[in-house]
Structure of CRP/FNR family transcriptional regulator:
Amino acid sequence: MLTSTAAQSALAADSAASPGPAVSSPPQQRSRRATPRAAGRTGTRSAARCSSCAMRQLCMPQGLAPDELSKLETLICSARSVHRGDTLYRSGDSFDNIYAVRSGSMKTVMAHRDGREQVTGLRLAGEALGLDGISDDRHACSALALEDSTVCIVPYTALKSLCREIGSMQERLHKLLGEQIVREAAQMMVLGSLSADERVAAFLLDVSERNAQRGYSWAEFNLRMTREDMGSYLGMTLETVSRTLSRFQKRGLIDTQGKHIRIVDLDGLRQV
Amino acid sequence: MLTSTAAQSALAADSAASPGPAVSSPPQQRSRRATPRAAGRTGTRSAARCSSCAMRQLCMPQGLAPDELSKLETLICSARSVHRGDTLYRSGDSFDNIYAVRSGSMKTVMAHRDGREQVTGLRLAGEALGLDGISDDRHACSALALEDSTVCIVPYTALKSLCREIGSMQERLHKLLGEQIVREAAQMMVLGSLSADERVAAFLLDVSERNAQRGYSWAEFNLRMTREDMGSYLGMTLETVSRTLSRFQKRGLIDTQGKHIRIVDLDGLRQV
DNA sequence: CGTATGTTTGAACTCCCTCAACTAGTGTGG
DNA sequence: CCACACTAGTTGAGGGAGTTCAAACATACG
């Protein structure tokens, strides 16, 4: 149920361009340090345009006509890589860009004044990021890479102009904003009303569905978050997350080893 | 800390037009049934334009030049009254309008499939409502009046056009959407990381601040929500809300009788 | 003015947290 | 290459914050 309407942002309008029926889990970097590490801790910028093949399956272009898409591409498309654990932006940073996760995954966290942190979001490839900065020109959250990732950079000011020119572009941005509003409201409901078991189940189903809608397997995936991240996102301790997953495994609902999760009994998971 | 940036939406650009230093609590309808009840359970539509005096202190016009404001006014301004307990829209209703609470207050609720409901938002006069419908042309939440209230109706399609004509209008809508995203993220943090005491304190401070920014007293207000609504919004039971308020009163932080709340020790409340 | 709805408070219970110990990976440096 | 440290995950035992159940009280709505 959780955010069932939200994940469509990851799908291309042109379904034929989807990444195909990848039955197994997404292409994980088995050897995590395989890619030569670029200089600098903050990741690198690439002047190269996002190739249209990459763009089509990302969140922004959905519903755009080809000529509009090309306008978007001239606008957007510098990319940036962010290494695992590094921040894409920090709470308080000036807001200049919206991002789309091109590969990898990220989390957003919000800090209380006393230092406590709460994970407020998980972004998989194809999902939008950075919308928390619109309201007052500073980011309200920080965004960290859960694994080595790349993002497309969309300059907000230019995007705004484009939205005034192209109706479908405006429509797309509004949907993106609206989706995040609904997703967050659904998460408030998870945090406010569900038991620990229900929260974990809802989370797994949410990730599963988002994976499926990006053309990957709904049944099997690697969650790059730690138990602590999951706990923070779900409003519980890492121990309770771990115990819950173990119990789900004993009940035959899932099969986990570490970060790799396989959903065995989808309906069972839905029923709590 | 909670959503400190959000409430500015209620302020008019022209500060001289603010409702003035109302030291006491907002003008509540003491005799609640004083206004003759119009026919029909769903409230009435009024063809009358929102007078500019009313509009200026509402959320939409902030940051608009006079001529742009008048364009907005020709667009918007049918109003509707919603009686206490009645719904302005329901989850699943087709999304046609955005609303601005003109008087009174409303709550938004989201339902789980099994029937459990979660209060996902509280809207005071001057705040925007209905943004949960943008993402898929159906409302994801329901909106109910906490007291007899009136709202301005802003047709979304027309608003979109206007946003393409007028940059400041686009800006305003984006801010509105961005503010809700940040507000909800902050509430996720409340639900996920704070203790019961902290949640109640954060809530009172949030309402206090929003009241203040609308020109009313930060120290004293009527919360039209029930303890159950508060509990739902804060992820706890009505009994715990009640106990917490009682304890705050014993500690000299607040003074409550029923729905009327007076903040005695603002700093104390901030320190938990 | 009476009844339904909302609020307060108490007492027992329980779900989840806290603290702790142990295991298994992963990266580092000798 | 192994030993080491370090981070991440699992599992257990005990305790506590908040829930549940219940009953009395207050408020306000029709």
